[in-house]
Design brief:
Blueprint: H1 7-23, H2 26-34, H3 41-49, H4 68-81, H5 87-101, H6 104-115, E1 121-124, E2 140-144, E3 147-158, E4 165-171, E5 182-188, E6 194-200, E7 206-217, E8 222-223, H7 230-265, E9 267-268, E10 271-272, H8 277-303, H9 309-338, H10 348-361, H11 366-378
Helix pairs in contact: 1-4, 4-7, 4-8, 5-6, 5-7, 7-8, 7-9, 7-10, 8-9, 9-10, 9-11
Length: about 375
Amino acid sequence: MHFNLTAEQQLLSDTVQRFLAKAYAFEARQKIVKSKEGWSREIWAQLAEMGLLALQVPEAQGGMAPAAVETLLTMTAMGKALLVEPYLASAILATALIRDLGSAGQQEALLPAMAAGEKIAVPAHGERGARYDLSRVATTAARQGQGWALRGKKTVVIHAEAADLLLVSARTGGGLDDAAGISLFLVPRDATGLRLTGYRTVDGQRAADVELAGVAVPADALLGAEGQAFLALQAAFDLGVAALCADAVGSLQATLDATIDYTKTRKQFGVPIAKFQALQHRMADMLIHVEQARSMSYLAAMKAASGDARDRRRTVSAAKVVVGQACRHVAQQAVQLHGGMGVTDELAVSHHFKRLLGFELSLGDTEHHLEQFVAANAARPA
C-alpha cells in the first residue's frame, strides 16, 4: 500500500510532532495528569491556534472537514505524546455529531467556538450493560412544556468534567434496543438535575458517570430530527474508531522505540541485551505488528467518512481488531523486555502500556469488532 503525503500534510505532521515534543514532554505530561483538572487549557488553546480543533469542522464554519489524512497524522502524533486533552471526544466525536445533525443555527453557534477552543462538547452515550451496542439506550426524553425532560444514567463519559456541553442520547420512541427512536440533546454541564461523578481512567484521562434526574432542556436543544440520531451516532463513532487506531499507532511506535533504546543500554553478561538473537526476534515481531497496525490505520482513515455505512463499519472494525491485537502483543513484549522497570511510573513505556490497554477497551473491544466485521461481511452482496 503506497501512502505518500503532500507537502502540506508532511508539514502538518512535522509541526504537530515538534510542538508536542517540546510542550508535552514526559515530565510536563505528568504534571498535567496530576493537576486538578487533569488536562491543560493552555495546551488546548495552542491546539486551537494551530487549527487542529477545526479538522472535522465544515469549510462553511472555517474548518477542513473531512480532513481524513490530517486527522490521522494529528492523532498519531498525539498518541505518541500520550495527550490527555479532550481531543477525540470534542474535536472529533462531538464536532462530527453537531456537523451532521445540527441545524444551521446550531452549527454557527457551536462549531466556530469549538474550533477556536472556546467551547468543549463531548458525547454522553454509553450506558451500563450496553456492551458497545450503540442502539441500546435506556435514558429517556419526554416532552415537558415547550421542551424536554431527560432521565437516565450514562457511564464512562470521557472528559465530561471538562465539557461545556454534553451531547446526551435519549430515547424518544421505540424499544430498548431499537435503532429508531434515539434522539440527541445539547445539555449544559451545569444544568439543574445533572450530576457528574468524576474519576481518572487507567490511561490517565478523566471520565465521569452522568446522572440525569429530570434535566429540563428547551426545544432547540434537540439535535436533528426527533428519533433519528442513530445513523449519525454510528458514523461519528466509526470516525472515532479510525482516529483511535491512529492514536494507538503513535503509542505503539513510541513503545517500540523505547524498547529498542532500552535493550541497547541494558547489559547482561557484559553485553547489551539487544545483541541476544532471541530478543532480536521478539522485537522484530513487535515491528511487524506495528507496521500492520499502521497500514490498517491508513485504511480506516480513508474509509471513515464513507457514505457506505456497511463498508465503512467493516473496514474500521477490521482495523480495530488488527490494531487491538498489536496493542496487546507490543505492550506485553515491551514490559517483559524492560523487566520490572517496565511497570514503573518513572518510565514512559508503562504509560504507553496503559494507553494501549485503554485503546483495546474504547469504542468497542476486539470481540465486539470481530462480531461487527463478520456481520458486515455476511450482509455484503454476493
